[in-house]
Amino acid sequence: MSYKLYYAQGSAAMGVRVLLEEIGAPYELIQTTIDMDKPRPPEQLALNPNGWVPVLIWDDSAMYECAAITVFLCDRHPEANLAPGVNEAERGVYLQTLVYFSNTVQNAFQLNYYPERFADTEAEEPSAQRRGIRRLRETWKVIDDQIGDKEWILGDRFSAADIYLFMLTTWLSTPHGHPTTDEFPNVKRIADKVMQRPSVQLVYAK
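Above: the chain sequence. Below: its structure as tokens.
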């Protein structure tokens, strides 16, 4: 099985690329952009009219949304052991965490990075940015508390949820007023361990 991935540095496509490396499936990167002032390839817009990445292509099919792609790839490649099966006890926490990352933590980043999407006027954009920073602290605290003293998000089992967590921590920006992972020691502990994986070293090499 081979894949194509619409890809841009600094985007959620990097997390999907790590998954593909972990799975060991062949893939091709199709370079695109997350720069709001640059056009997207029309082929990308045909697959995702929002213009965002990642977009994953396989056979004659395609899909977008990072959390959905994560679930799909892990279920399609169970031999990689990156997710609990549908009847395993950890499946609920795994799905819950991925959706929380996608719908809540990423939304907080969007408030701060793209305030024009949430404000009626330019004058109101700083308020949206400040709310995004507060929301980042709130949402990361929820995840930090959920992890507790567990080795990984799912306990003693490494999973795609840990990769997703790491990816999101790379978006934290001190110049934007974001908290650092030092405020969330359980998150930091997992992110630091994920960073040591060869797949992550490859994708996130400076």
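The CA atoms of residues 87 and 188 lie 30 Å apart.
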